[in-house]
Amino acid sequence: TVMDLLPAPGGGLLVGAADPQLLWLDERGQLVARRGAVIPDYRDQGETFAVSSDAWRVRVGLRRGAEPVLLDFIAGRLQRSPRPPAELRPALIEAPGWDWQNWRDTPNPTLNGRRVELEPYESARSLALSPDGARAVLGCDWSLRAYDRAGKERWRQPVPSVVWAVAISGDGQSVVAAYGDGTLGWHRLADGERYLTAFIHAEDRRWIAWTPAGAYWGSPGAEELLGWCIDRGPERKPIFLPLLEATQAAAAERQQRSALSRGRETQAAAADRQRWRVRLVFGLVAAVALALGGLWIAQTAGRTRVPRDGVLDKVRADIEAQARRQGIEEAVDGIEPIEPLSSVLYSGQQATVRVRLRSGLQATVELRVGDTTVGYRVVQLEAPR
Q1: Which of 164, 180, 188 is nearest to 55 (CA)?
Q2: Backbone φ, ψ for residue 296 (5° rounding)
Q3: Residue-wise pLDDT tens digits, 134-146
Q4: What mean pLDDT do residues 35-41 have?
Q5: In the chain, what percentage of residues exceed pLDDT 90?
Q6: How far apart are CA 248 and CA 260, in angstroms?
Q7: Other CB atoms closer than 10 Å to residue 192's CB: what's the count?
Q8: Sign of the alpha-carbon torsion through 310, 315, 321, 323
Q9: How far apart, in whole angstroms, are the C-alpha atoms of residue 36 and residue 195?
Q10: CA–CA separation, 208 vs 113, rounded Å?
């Protein structure tokens, strides 16, 4: 579907399509260039779309006819899935007491002979029944709805785009939906509330998942896929601020504040602080979301983890090696957490530890937990008191 037409610089025509797709045609109508979508196309999933009993493993096709992939939050990876794993199940669409008709791509679905009322011009697109047969979830153009056997609507949730596929986990706790905007959404079956969203890049297969609180985790480099789009009106190009850039802005502001408090701000530092000022608001939003949301992930969905002892041992070894390079032979005397550390660190979590050398020199180290690695940096050095 063509959404917009604009004259191209130097002649020709720019065509914007709903796929989304951008075409550049010359004066003769010949194709000069094309930019296709990098979002997945979740139409016509059929039994390809399947979820595990706990909903933390999802098999899905990213393109029509393409080999499916398996998004595995337990292992923390995305992998090829030419054959469906035995423990994953597609949507259940038939069960005793449920007679759904005309529920696929029509505006007139019926349940047990009675019409299910949708919004004007809205169509039903997908269906799933709960394993216990108590609920049915209907995916539509503008909503996700749950019904009981009597046909009563139990809840309705707005959705970001058309619900092309839907499935219910085997434990009856979660609904997983595949949307037309290329995202996957995890909802509670009890009330339809969405608690997790994920996006998979259809070309390079990077993936990222995030919670409503702003906590996130994903594959290396996926921070570039999540951020803030700043609309500046129809005449100006919008600004996209990636999440990674926003967190760097927050870190830069913290460094400048530290330098100011010590009275050591240089001209270069002042210029750098000014450069990040515009981005600071978004960086602080991201930092607060990470700090508040990391623990929520650890308690609910965090399965990618790095043992705490291994992390601290690595910090100890690296600081000792750096000290030796600077001619300091004394070993690290101890590592004392400033912020409480659980027995494991989860992806997306942040923490701060204080490291002491036997000479009395102390360093404050910030830890940032990724998928398979833990990043850290020394943010402050203190002389012996």
Answers
A1: 188
A2: -60, -40
A3: 999 999 999 999 9
A4: 86
A5: 42
A6: 18
A7: 19
A8: negative
A9: 30
A10: 42
